[in-house]
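Checklist before submission:
- one chain only
- standard amino acids only
- sequence pasted in full

Submission:
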Amino acid sequence: MFGSKSGSLMFILYQILPAILLAIVNVSALAVEKVAIRQDQTCVATCGKVCYWQEDIDEAVEQGYSLHEAGKTVGSNDYPHQFNNREGFDFPGQAPYYEFPILSSFDPYDGGSPGADRVVFNEAGDYQGAITHTGAGGNNFVECT
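Returned file contents:
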């Protein structure tokens, strides 16, 4: 069909290049779709400058409550542990309350540094609120907005 050098070049231009371009377009479309999904969600709690969506909060509460129900803890501070609410937050449910880290990386907490932010849940596993050490004096908490 074509000479050897020009045939190879033509093969690349007509066969391989379109396949590469199609793959790039497909990958770009997936990335745009993921960004669009994340942008559609809204902040349920903002702790310092970190925006947590409902799915982030649900995952942290579910993980903390599952550990609590199993009688297990993680990390050197033994999370989840009882939250005594010395600050006097007005949570919707009844005490006892438990705190569990919610990480600004949006990864599940499995030990290590707990960061500044926490979800609070009650004995029934119901989400009560989000709190943070960011902006609080000492080892106190302030409520996330």
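Reviewer check: The first helix runs from residue 4 to 40.
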